Amino acid sequence: MRIGELSRRTGVNAHQLRYYEAQGLLEADRGANGYREYDESAVLRVKQIRHLLGAGLSSEDIAYLLPCAVGEAPTLPGCPELLAAMRSRLRRLDDQMARLARSRDALTDYIEAAERTSAETYPPLDDPDLAAVPA
């Protein structure tokens, strides 16, 4: 099948499919006309890639894990190398989440400080003292 059909069958645009190919996640043969030709297994492969991307894995992680993937969801065997790779990715995600939480807390503090300053400088519009001020 050509890239357009693979795109329709998986819901993944052709640009992303070419990216997956460039990353070594998806293989295509070239027809005599130069067009990419995918076999039927490409549909399952793309679905596996999408699920693994949804788990926060990088294309590098996926390239490592994909040869062991079974099924659409996919299931991955619990061999030590794969577990180590997934645990490493989980630690990176935990670190990113901790950094985001710190950033969120700092931003919340800035907003609260700005709102306090704003309330002192600019009284609320429903303030009765402002009702007497001509427009």
List the helices and strands and how they pair.
Blueprint: H1 3-10, H2 14-22, E1 29-30, E2 36-37, H3 41-54, H4 59-65, H5 80-121, H6 128-131
Antiparallel strand pairs: 1-2
Domain HTH merR-type: 1-68
Protein name: MerR family transcriptional regulator
Organism: Streptomyces olindensis
Largest sheet: 2 strands, antiparallel
Strand order of the largest sheet: 1-2
- As residue ranges, the low-confidence spans are none
List SSEs in N-to-C order. Answer: HHEEHHHH
Q: What share of residues are in beta strands?
A: under 5%
And the CATH topology of the largest domain?
Multidrug-efflux Transporter Regulator, Chain: A, Domain 2
Number of β-strand runs: 2
Q: Could you estimate the helical fraction of the residues in percent? A: 55-70%
- How does CATH name the architecture of the largest domain? Orthogonal Bundle
Pfam families: MerR_1
InterPro entries: DNA-bd_dom_put_sf, MerR-type_HTH_dom, MerR_fam
Organism: Streptomyces olindensis
Keywords: DNA-binding, Repressor, Transcription, Transcription regulation
Structure in words:
A two-stranded antiparallel ribbon has the order 1-2. The protein is mainly alpha-helical. It folds into two domains: 1-77, Multidrug-efflux Transporter Regulator, Chain: A, Domain 2 (Orthogonal Bundle); 78-122. Helix content is 62%, strand content 3%. The longest helix is centred in the last third of the chain and has 42 residues, at 80-121. The protein starts with a helix and ends with a helix. This is MerR family transcriptional regulator. It holds the Pfam family MerR_1. Keywords: DNA-binding, Repressor, Transcription, Transcription regulation.
